[in-house]
Amino acid sequence: MNEMPAILRLAAGAAAHAANRQGVIATNVANADTPGFHARDMNPFVVDDGFQLRRADERHLAGTSRQSEVFKLRNAAVDPNGNTVDLEDQVLRGIEAARAHNQAITVYRNNLDILRTALGRR
């Protein structure tokens, strides 16, 4: 069996997404005083299991994957130098990303423990 179980792929994907989000937030904090810098964030993690939306009419919009899209924060207060980074907001977003990462790692670790127990390697 060479393929990783679905739950482990899901946990690994969630952890990778949270780590990437931490990188975006760290870039925001690093540029908190950069004139004209716009704060960014990532869309929430979504399970991408290959499900595609069907269109009943060609004029309807097709669904797109939004898992790792980075976007500029809207409705953010703008400093006189054009910067939109709010450090308090970035700290809260960082905490949220850290919790998501810890949760994904816990799921991953617990499932590995279950697999080890099932194999008698505990």
Automatic annotation (TrEMBL):
UniProt keyword list: Cell projection, Cilium, Flagellum
Domain Flagellar basal body rod protein N-terminal: start-end pairs: 8-37
One matching Pfam family: Flg_bb_rod
GO CC, alphabetical: bacterial-type flagellum basal body
Subcellular location, record wording: Bacterial flagellum basal body
Chief site of localization: other
InterPro entries given in the database record: Flag_bb_rod_N, Flagellar_basal_body_rod_CS
Similarity comment text for this entry: Belongs to the flagella basal body rod proteins family.
Name listed for the protein in its UniProt record: Flagellar basal-body rod protein FlgB
Originating species: Jannaschia faecimaris
